[in-house]
Amino acid sequence: MRKQFIAASLLAGLSMPAYAEELALSGSNTAWLLTATALVLFMTLPGLALFYAGLVRSKNVLSVLMSCFAIAGAVSILWLVGLYSLTFTDGGSAQPIIGGLSRMFFSGMTPDSMAGDIPEVLFAAFQMTFAIITPALIIGAFAERMKFSAMLIFSLLWTIAVYVPVAHWVWGGGFLGEMGLIDFAGGTVVHITAGVAAIVAAIVVGPRRGFPKQPMPPHNLTMTVIGAGMLWVGWFGFNAGSALAADGSAAMALLVTHISASAGALVWVACEWKRFGKPSVLGVVTGMVAGLGTITPASGSVGPAGALVIGCLAGLICFNMTQVVKRVWKIDDSLDVFPVHGVGGILGTLLVAVFASTELGVFSGQGFADGISTMMGQLNVQFIGVMVTFVYTAVITWVLLKLTGLMTGGLRVSAEQETLGLDLSLHDERGYDL
Description:
The chain has 16 helices and 2 strands. It is mainly alpha-helical. It has a single domain (2-412), classed as Ammonium transporter fold (Orthogonal Bundle), CATH 1.10.3430. Strands 1-2 form a two-stranded antiparallel sheet. Strand 1 (114-115) and strand 2 (118-119) form a beta hairpin.
């Protein structure tokens, strides 16, 4: 995959000017990645911010918007200071666990520095948008009850201790990538890490006051639908942009992303219609997001038929997991981050081995059309990647939450602040003044 190729070129210790002579800048690829970078940032701001803000109660709408903006700014600074370097460079020697510090503050990076046939500064900016959205996804699990200070400290510590190592393992020359794990755009790096962190956080922080007996419906589904539409469009930059080129791989990734999102939305609505008697707007947008998250790791390796099956399975399995988490486990994952992103990421990462087939429009045949033994071998690699990511994320997230609680005098706001709402109690502002 092209992302791994570019990472390998950085890890090889080649000087960027010398590499630029070997592989000239591609104007078309650069233009596409500039667009994709803007699209992925657009997913967080305002896409995810509006999607989440509409799902909480009106007294907490600003707290969600504030969290997304604060995370975007703070993670961007950390990415510049050293997180990009730790993820994608190694100082000239292979590092299976974590990278090096040769690109701290983007040291030595000029407009002429190349990563493949695109500017390295653009590659760094594109990857920064992934680092931004991942911790922002997690806030949906503890929305409406965590202190702003605790949220910000935890999010930054988590990005350093979880996102960066896992991204290095998969995309930066680490041991999972070397094993042959297929994760085109972030099934393990983004969705499993965010989803697992979310359910651990929901357990540690505890449920909202009144859960599960008190109804807590979304306060503004119009806002949520607008945000969902932005996520759908922005996801084309997320998945198709991960090809790092304006080529057929990017075009196929865009198409399968759309097919999976469409199937996920429709199957989720069908499940909801059958179970509750009516289809809902909340269901159609949540199913769409499930379809998007599930196709993400496979988007560079499957064709339209595989994407259709993946999207259908995403809608079916993720819908049922939302019921299990809230009704059976009685865990208050406020905005269903684990069942949608965590379960979707796990499902998509495993299904890569099944549907990455030459019969279904593939770029690297690994699936059932190439033989059961080949498929099972790849499935074993994918399973190891899922388990390593799951266990590491769960353990480190728990430790970081406990540490953050000690640093901030507790993770939660007081009962009085929660009842009043985080907008007024933490920010002294109202989302609406009608």
